[in-house]
Amino acid sequence: MGGLKKQMKITWITFLIGSLAISGIPPFSGFFSKDLILEKAYTYGTLFYGLGIITALLTAFYMFRMTYLTFYGESRVSSEKASHLHESPLVMTIPLIILSIGATVTGFLEVPHLFYGGVRILTSYFGPVFIRGIEISERIVKQPLDAREVGTTTTVELSLIAVSIAVAISGIFIARMIFLNGKKVPDSEESHTGIKRILTKKYYVDEFYHNFIVEPILLLGKFLADHVERNFLDLMLRGTGRVAVAISLVLRRAQTGIVVDYAILIVLGTVVILSFFLLRGL
């Protein structure tokens, strides 16, 4: 694609807001949620905090990689396809606008105590749910899940916020240098080798799933259809039908259309029923 911001301005703006929010840039909602996650990870130790920082960097990088490749630079579609590019209808753009507004303002429902003493609306609302989850987890691992006490002083919190923002900006900057300034376009999968091919193929999870789960199920289904269903179920059903036809051919002979025959059958039936009850009474 590329260069779509000219034809799809609303989609571009809302997508950009979403990317900024997911990347954790203030004042968008993702900044506040990411700050809380990293702060909690920091209280559990350097390992968890480091993993959170790496994840935040990669998140900002791939979000703006997608943004730059989709909406910036030169268009990479044919002129024939480019003539059909247009903004989405209102049924799609209105939800995008609503979501982008939410991504812009909902972060202020959970503000760190550093700012105006903090706003903890979401914590107050969802607190009982998470407390219950912690209690269940403690029973499973049979030990408390207490985090080490780290003083959330102004200096500590400012440092965590600064690192969080710096990491997000770094991810965006790297994506810009590679895919916008460097005008790099992703290669085809066939040209990838080594670790790059493994990552492109998503660790071959799809191939494993197809070869070891999908294909065996398809083979089993083919075997059941060709042998079990055709040689057993079909024969059983056809045999049931043949038995019903044979019985009907015998019984149809009793349907002569002669009233006398029917009267005789009624009398015989009555005699049989009375005999049954008389013999049973003896």
What are the main properties of this structure?
282 residues, mainly alpha, two-stranded antiparallel ribbon, 2 strands
Architecture overview:
With 282 residues, the chain is an all-alpha fold. It is 72% helix and 1% strand. The protein has helices at residues 9-23, 29-44, 46-71, 79-82, 90-105, 121-141, 154-181, 194-200, 205-251, 259-281, and strands spanning 110-111, 119-120. The chain is elongated. It has 2 domains: 9-186, no CATH class; 208-280. It starts with 8 loop residues before the first helix and ends with a helix. A hairpin with a 7-residue loop joins strand 1 (110-111) and strand 2 (119-120). It has a two-stranded antiparallel sheet.
User: How many domains make up the 3D coordinates?
Assistant: 2
Structural class: mainly alpha
Helix content: over 70%
> Quaternary state, please?
single chain
Mean pLDDT: 83
**Largest sheet data:** 2 strands, antiparallel
List the secondary-structure elements in sequence, H or E: HHHHHEEHHHHH
Order of strands, main sheet, comes to: 1-2
Q: Report low-confidence residues grouped into runs of 5 or more.
A: 147-151
Radius of gyration: 36 Å
Total strand segments: 2
- Strand fraction: under 5%
* Count of separate DSSP helical elements: 10
- How far apart are the first and last residues' alpha carbons, in Å? 95 Å
Shape: elongated
Membrane topology: Multi-pass membrane protein
Main location: membrane
Keywords: Membrane, Transmembrane, Transmembrane helix, Ubiquinone
Organism: Leptospira interrogans serovar Grippotyphosa str. LT2186
